[in-house]
Amino acid sequence: MNKRAKQKNTKAKVFAAKGLMIIIGVGIAIVAIVAYFGIHSLIPVNGNSPVFAAPTNTFVKASYSPQTGYVFTSQSTSSSRNSIGIGFNSPTITLKQGELESTHIINEDTTSKHNFNIDAFNVHTKNLGYFESQSVTFIANKVGSFTYYCTLHPEMKGKVVVEPQ
Ligand SMILES: [Cu+2]
CB count, 10 Å around CB of 59? Predict the structure, then answer.
């Protein structure tokens, strides 16, 4: 190999190495972002460390009809220990003490925004527009009966009952 060819070869190698570094860099950044948000989504809103457990999922929609007015309606099938069934209005959400709960709210009302709150567990969604949804994960770390509600419509409320273990 003459001098020029050698130089060219070295340049090509440096270029390839730089390319590889960029690819690795981007890879690390993606992994870091996923890890950051992944871990953060595992931290309950009323806790400060990630919980590596499968949550109980409850699906609730905000809806409106002239008959019912503004109302939270269950989208979860009923289970042996709670009164939730698809279509139940103002369903009671029953949990066991210490249970990890993910409540998924969707606004299926074309006429108004809605939000979902449970003060006792630091649960507060943003104002959800039509077909917007938000999931909130919390630990049922208090026993008793609590109220969930929408700040925009006082009539939209129901109970969260946490039973002792
Ligand atoms: Cu509302």
Answer: 18
- pLDDT of res. 1: 58
User: In this structure, how many other beta carbons lie within 10 angstroms of the beta carbon of residue 130?
Assistant: 14
In the reported structure, the alpha carbon of residue 126 is separated from the centroid of ligand 1 by a whole-number distance in angstroms of: 11
The torsion angles phi and psi of 19, rounded to 5 degrees, stand at -60, -45
Mean pLDDT within 42-46:
91
Strand 56-65 and strand 100-107: the pairing is parallel
Taken as a whole, the chain contains a residue count of: 165
Is 110 within 8 Å of 76 (Cβ atoms)? no
What are the angstrom distances between the C-alpha of 18 and each of 25, 116, 138, 143? 10, 50, 45, 58
- Mark the residues whose beta carbon lies below 5 A from ion ligand 1: 114, 150, 152-153, 156
pTM above 0.85, yes or no: no
Nearest to 58 by CA among 113, 100, 108: 100
Instruction: Measure the CA–CA gap between 124 and 15, rounded to whole angstroms.
Output: 51
